[in-house]
Amino acid sequence: MNAMKQILGCIRKADQDYNMIADHDRIAVGVSGGKDSMLLLYCLHLYQQFCQRIQSKQFEVVGIHIQMGFPDMDFTDAAAFFKQHGIRLELVPSRIYDILKIQANDDGSLKCSLCSTLKKGAVNRAAKDFGCTKVAFAHHGDDAIETLLMNAIYGGRLATFAPKMYLSNAEMPFIRPFIYARENQIHAAVESCGVPVVKSTCPMDGYTRRQDMKEMLERLYAEYPMARDNFLLMLHNEKQLSLWHEETADEQAELHPISKSES
Q1: Strand-by-strand arrangement of the 172-175 sheet
Q2: Contact indicator for 4, 157 with CB cutoff of 8 Å
Q3: Burial label, 38 (beta-carbon count in 10 A; 0-12, 13-18, 19+)
Q4: Partners of 63 in the beta sheet?
Q5: Model confidence at 115: pLDDT above 70
Q6: In terms of C-beta density within 10 A (0-12 exposed, 13-18 middle, 19 or more buried), how is residue 125 classed?
Q7: DSSP letter assigned to residue 239
Q8: Distance separating alpha carbons of residues 217 and 228, to the nearest angstrom
Q9: Alpha carbon distance 150, 17 (integer Å)
């Protein structure tokens, strides 16, 4: 249970730091079937009970699984697990796989970015249909670091996703309660609590740029172990952010002593 306590502690810290969950919220959790989203739905259910008992904050949790249409996806065990624990899970049909096949790349591979957009849109629409006030996805701290590197390598910019944001086109707040959790902690919690995982049958599973980032980071962590915690720290270490700033002709930049961290 120590692994679960760590995960619940991460959720509580994220909620406190970014004011993610309000009294009387109804939170839709996007559930793909993978370990991250399955655990998030279960943990938010446990956190809901904790908040109701300790903080007198009440909110609801609704799991939403968009049925993508990938062949041989079996959600029977997952549905049974959540029913056993009194957790609401809605299965929502879609034609996303059919659309992805029509819009495939020239080599026949599916467009992961299009898939992500379609899936998020489907979850947001379902969340509104079920009267939810927020949508939660299970992106964790390692996802955030990978996103930062992908944006740096492929886009020339330092940016990652936000812990909490408002999707203006969907008119829906969007939260990520797992931002302080690490993938190895999630894996340990899933194992310790017997949360079922639905094997992905997406033909692109394991063949993405994000997977490249995962493997590159693991090699780096093996050589520089301290980087694992420091990379997560840098994402919210605003006081020590120092980047270049181009001066305009009208600006008179003041020289300042170079600190040790800037040298």
Answers
A1: 88-93, 60-67, 26-30, 134-136, 172-175, 164-167
A2: no
A3: buried
A4: 29, 89
A5: yes
A6: middle
A7: G
A8: 9
A9: 26
